[in-house]
Structure formats: structure tokens, C-alpha cells
Amino acid sequence: MSGGTFVGMPAFPKAAHEAVNNQTLRGNLRHATHTIRGKRAKAVAEMSDWAELREAGKRIKDHTLRHLDTYLVQLEESVTAAGGVVHWAADADEANRIVVELVRMTGESEVVKVKSMATQEIGLNEALEAEGIAAYETDLAELIVQLGKDRPSHILVPAIHRNRGEIRDIFAREMSEWGRPAPEGLTDTPAELAEAARLHLREKFLRAKVGVSGANFMVAETGTLVVVESEGNGRMCLTLPETLISVVGIEKIVPTWRDLEVFLQTLPRSSTAERMNPYTSTWTGTTDGDGPQTFHLVLIDNGRTDTLADEVGRQALRCIRCSACLNVCPVYERAGGHAYGSVYPGPIGAILSPQLRGTASEIDASLPYASSLCGACYEVCPVAIDIPEVLVHLRERVVEGGPVTRDGNKVVLKPAKGHAAERAAMRAARWAFSHPGALRTGQRLASRTRRFHPRTLPGPGKAWSGTRDLPAVPAEPFRDWWQRTNGGKDTSK
Amino acid sequence: MRVALFLTCVNDTLYPDTGRAVVKLLTRLGVEVDFPMAQTCCGQAHYNTGYRHEAEPLARHFSDVFGGYEAIVTPSGSCGAMVRELYPRMGERARAEGRGESLAATLAPVVPKTYELTEFLVDVLEVTDVGAYYPHTVTYHPTCHGLRGLGLADRPRRLLQAVKGLELRELPGADECCGFGGTFALKNSDVSAAMGADKVRNAESTGAEVLCAADNSCLMHIGGTMTRLSTGMRPVHIAEILASTEEEPLT
User: Is residue A187 part of a domain?
Assistant: First the structure.
């Protein structure tokens, strides 16, 4: 993720510190996540075959990933046969170079964009801007983020951290810089805000000659791309321009339309809690006299093949970007999306970013710990990604190092720095727990000195006692009572 | 029936009352309880912090200590889930690393025999009314590894509902994590504390005197937050409520 947007992020706990103490943000996030959480639960409960759909989604994705080489070639053949051009990009830089060149060939200096995680992941907007090409986000929430010179904080609802009043202020202040200004006297009612966005975006749709999108799915058998959205803005970008460039991660393939059917049931219910998705756009190459006459598909790897090489971690590639895990996550709800230092926040981000980007940076090495392992994410995941399992696996990668695949090569990672004291403590604890006598000595020492124990701890101990009292140590550990009273039978003692 | 009490290192060291309550309760129900003195720790903290290889000798030790018993009962959802869910996974990982069947074979016998306390009562002993008496208002927090890991479902609530004198109050947002999460409580203390404070506020809103759970580690975090926030509530492990009787009430 070379976009530059998240470079130099501090570790998660530090980034989360600010968010936790921002009461407006906490309120915005609590309200939004709890609302959608409840709606999703209802939408899912309506389906008597949800467990089977979840299992089917998991198996389809696993099968496709297992045979990704075959399906990618099939997809390229299908897209090419339908009049599209397929490009392959190993990383973000290569993908950006390809897209910049494709836009240049059209002679245009602006593009309209469909909401897309892949283009955010590679930092495409910034790469285009550096070459003098303006990229206009047309998804309402992405527009709010772009106008506010902000960063997205949620996969599905990127402006979830903003309330209506904040959005009104951003529109009133910034729209004139980018095109049609906000109407005079704009208020924060949803209808007025939506109308302001409609008017602002409409002139961009009608003017643009180049559209840039991602895709939720690519159907290998026919070479069809699928975008699933709620506003219709995506469909405008996919149909009005003369040239369409779609940037898609290689894991987004499904073999057949029949496979797609499963996800068109599970994705809307998991993401927006809708029974059916409002705008499902599909296109296959180009069609004379209908829609874009030039179609380019840029397939990006950007760490995906390396992730696929890891037996435990590869399940993260099943993700269909529904955001259900974000909406139920108690850590996301309090830390907010920005703390994750990636376009992929929340539990899925905590397992995707350290795999796609590696664990070398401070933020990526801290992400596997950004979870209490409560398991709510796994429970709601429509493709059954065992996020806690991968988190623990990545913690192991951070503290123990070990074999990983980077840029297609097998390398052995060294244990991360900054865990020396913890490692020593874990070893010492393991030694004590392997010697019951030593454990007992420690317990007795704690019990005998208990009168002198403070209620709060200094230094690193403040992490606990800054907000919580320490438990009182009992007069004797259980095992001493057990032995003294012969398992409780001798009550005179 | 003779069972081994796997008390857990945290309970042994900090919460002996919970251990005594389990012994009293099971004995009352006609179960012969043994406490193997060689028991230490299941290795959960090591495993979940990323030190799987340090957890392996502890898991082997667990299996050596408990392997010979008919059933192993623990008053901890998360340590129970460690044995049941994660021991098999440790065996699989060792196999995948080319270290053979040894670990998987050593750990296999204890996995199906390990029960969390409320599971043991409801599924094995087939009792929900354990003859307890506890004249207090109680709200129940289902801890995550018990709820989602072991699938305890409504077992603890059914046991509590059968307690004489006990009034059970619904906890808003019950399924949400309290924010303990082992080393998470230290590594991400701000978020952990915020989650704890929200849990305590929800518990307070029930007006109950007692917040009950089946995991003392979570209760240590919630209880520590309660006293710091000067709430009038107190945390009590479910075993202590179920052990309480009219003749010998929990004070």
C-alpha cells in the first residue's frame, strides 16, 4: 500500500488512544455500528439456510484460491474474447503506472471513480494526482472523505466517523473548490445533503470520459465483472464514460455465475442488512453502441500471492469486504477506523494489512494485537474467516519470526524487536508452570507479602492499574487449602 | 463419579474461594472431586500472545496430569476453550511443521474429557436445579470464550434461574466483550478500559447487586473497574452462587 496516506502511522495502541478519548467520535461510531449490527442480525436471522450459505461461500472461495492459476487464465481469456484488455500488476506501483498510462492514452485529465477498495489500497488517486490527473470519488461517503481531505475509516461506510453536522460543514466549505458549490443555506437534513451531492456529482458524470472502478466479483466462465452498490453512482461511472478501467485484486474471482449467486445473497445481508442489493451492475468486455467502448482490467497481486502461500493466513483472501466484522467489533467501535493505519480497518484489516504489507512497520506489527480475541468477527463472517485464529498466528509471526513468503520468495523472519522483556517473562512463566514446586513458592510469596501490595502499580503496571484496581491476593492459594484440609474433608482446620 | 478439578492458575493463586465453591457444589451433587497437585497452567496466555512453542510443554504437562481422569472440570470458559478448541489446533500445527504426531497424540485424550463447570452440570450431571440459595439480584455476563468458543449458550442462565431467591436481570449488550482479553488488557489498555467501563455501566443500569460470570479473569477486569468507578456492584463467580445454600449461604 504505497499510497502514502498511511505512511508513518504510529502503533495501534497509540493511535487508538486519541480516538478513545474523542467523545464525538465515540458517539458517532457507537450509534452507527450498533444500528447496523442490529439490522444485520435481523436480516441474517430471516434466512433458514444461512449456515449452509456461509459454508458454501467458504468452500467456493477456498476452491477458487486453490486453483487460482487456472481461473485467472480462464478469466483473461474470457475478458479478452469479450473485447476487454487484461493487464497484470505485481504490486501497487506497477498497477498505478499502468492506470496512469491508460488514462494518458485517452488524452483526458480527469476520471470519475466508483467506490473501490483496491484503488485505495494502491493509492491510485494520489498517483493520478501526481501526474496531473484529477480523480473524483462519486460514492457519497467517499465524496465526503475526499472533500474533507480526510481518510476513510470503514470499508463500507468510509465516513462513518462523521455526523450530519460535520458533513454539512464539509459540503458548504469544500464543494466549490471541486466543482458545483453546495446550495445556499444548506442544512444537515439527509435529503438536502443527498441533493447537494447529486447536483455536485451530476456534472462530473456527464463530463467524464474515463471511469475507474474496482469489482466485487469477476466471473471466470464469462469474463463478467460485478459491482454491488447502493446509490447508483457506480452505475453512472460504469455506463457513461467512453473508457472504463477496472482495478481488481486477483482473489476476487468466482468460477461461475452459479457461485456468484451465493455471495449475492450473503453480501447484502452482511454489509447493509438488505435482502437484495439495490444496484448490481455486471459487464462483460465491451458492447457496440452500449456503454464504454474501451475496457481495461488491471489485475493486482500486491501481496496476495504471498498471503496465499501461508496455510493459516490465506483464509483472509476469502474476504468479500462486507464489513460485518467491523460493525460487531468492540475494539473497532472504540478505536475507530483510522487507528488501523490502512484502508482495511477493523478485524479483517488487522489480519489483511500485516499479510499484504508484511509485519516490518510499527503499525503492522501492532495490528495482530488490536483484538481481545472475543470472536464476534468470526461469528458474523459470511465466508467463515476465523479471524482470531489468524490474529494469533500473526502474533506468533511477530514474536517468534519464522518462515514467510515475501515477493514470491521464501524467507525466514527474525523475531520483532521490542518484545524481549515479554519473551523473557513468557519463558520464565513457562519454566515456573513446568515446575509445580516453583509455582507454589511464588504463590506463597505473593500471599505472605500481601499486606504490602499496593492498590496501583508504577511504570508499565499502570497499563492495568491506571483504570482498574488490582485483585487482593488471598491468605493462601487454593492448593495449600486443599492440602491442609485434605480436600475440604477436614473442616476443623 | 470421580472427576479432576482443573482450577486454572489464576483461580488457584487469586481466587481460592471459587475453587472451594466448585468442590462444595460437586461434592453436594455426589461427585468425588480430586485436585491433582501437579497441575499448573494450560498455556493459554502463552498461546494467545503468540508463544505457541512455549505453550506446548505446558499442554503436554496438562495432559500428563489430567490424562488418567474420567472427566476434567474447570470453572473457566476460556481455559476450557483452550483445551477443547486450541489443543487440537496445536497438534495440527505441529504436524504441519513436520514434527509428527507426537503432540497431537499426547493432547488428544484430554480434549473430549474437559468440561467447563456449567457444561458439566447441565450436560453430564443433567441438573439445572443444584439446590442453591442466593437471595440477591444478579445480572449475568456471558464471557466470550464460553459463549462463542465452547457454545455454552443458555446453560449458565438456566442454572441461575433455578437458584432459590435469585432474581436474574437482563444485561444490556450482554454478548459484548468486557475488554479483558488477557494481554490485550495491557497492550491496548485504553481500548480495554473503555470496553470495561461500558460493560460496568450496562451492568449498573440493571440495578442488580451482583454481576455474575463463569470466568474470574474477566471478573478481575470488570471488578477492578467497578471499584475504581465506585459502583455499588460486586463481581461473583457463578460457582460461588451455585455453591451457596440456605444452610451455608455465600456471604
Answer: yes
Question: Which residue in the set A330, A439, A471 is minimally distant from B195, CB to CB?
Answer: A330
Q: Min CA distance, B125 vs chain A (Å)? A: 21
Residue B143 buriedness (CB in 10 A; 0-12 / 13-18 / 19+): buried
Domain annotation covers residue A348 = no
CA distance B167 to chain A (A): 27
Residue of B40, B87, B188 to mutate for A, most A C-beta atoms under 10 A: B188
Nearest-neighbour CA in chain A from B90: distance (Å): 11
Domain ranges of chain B: 2-124, 137-243
Which among A256, A281, A300 is the end of a domain? Answer: A300
Q: Does B9 touch chain A (CB under 8 A)?
A: yes
B186/A334 Cβ within 8 A: no
In sequence order, what DSSP letters do the residues of B141-173 get, joined into one string? ---HIIIIII--TTHHHHHHHTSBT-EEEPPTT
CATH number of B137-243: 3.40.50
Are B15 and A482 within 8 A, CB to CB?
no
- Number of folded domains that form chain A: 2
Contact state of B148 with A477 under an 8 Å Cβ cutoff: no
Distances (CA, A) of A305 to A71, A219, B115: 14, 19, 41
Residue B99 forms contact with A (CB below 8 Å): no
Last-in-domain residue among A241, A276, A300:
A300
Distant-in-sequence, close-in-space partners of A418: CB < 8 Å, separation ≥ 6: none
Domain annotation covers residue A407: no
Which residues fall within 8 angstroms of residue A162, CB to CB, at 6 or more apart? A28, A144, A148, A150, A170
Cβ within 8 Å, pair B190-A17: yes
Among B33, B49, B231, which would you mutate to test the A interface (most chain A Cβ atoms within 10 Å of its Cβ)?
B49
Task: Output the CA–CA distances (angstroms, integers) from residue A247 to A59, A252, A295, B52, B230, in the order listed.
Answer: 25, 11, 11, 39, 55
pLDDT below 70 — which residues of chain B?
Answer: none
Q: Which residues 6+ apart lie within 8 Å of A427 measured at CB?
A: B54
Q: How many CB pairs under 8 A join A and B?
A: 200
Q: What per-residue confidence (pLDDT) applies to A422?
A: 87
In Å, how far is A118's CA from the nearest CA of chain B? Answer: 29
Residues 68 to 87 of B: which have CB under 8 A from any A CB?
none
The confidence score (pLDDT) of residue B226 equals 97
Q: B141 in contact with A at a CB cutoff of 8 Å?
A: no
- CATH classification at residue A89: 3.40.50.10420
Contact B89 A389 (CB under 8 A): yes
The predicted pLDDT at position B251 comes to: 76
Its CATH architecture, for the domain B2-124, is 3-Layer(aba) Sandwich (3.40)
Domain range holding A289? 47-300
Residue A231 domain flag = yes
Q: Tell me, what's the ipTM?
A: 0.97
pLDDT given at position A123: 97
pLDDT of the residue at A238 = 97
Please report the DSSP string for A204-222 in residue order: HHHH-SEEEE--SEEETTT
- Written as one string, the DSSP assignment of A330-344 is HHHHHH-SGGG-SSS
Domains B2-124 and B137-243 share a fold: yes
Mean pLDDT by 10 residues, chain A (493 residues): 52 94 93 96 98 98 98 98 98 98 98 97 98 97 95 93 94 96 96 96 95 98 97 96 98 98 98 96 96 98 98 98 98 96 97 96 95 98 98 96 92 87 88 88 88 79 89 94 93 64
Interchain contact, A16 vs B191, CB within 8 Å: yes
- Supply the pLDDT for residue B187: 94
> Whole-prediction pTM value?
0.96
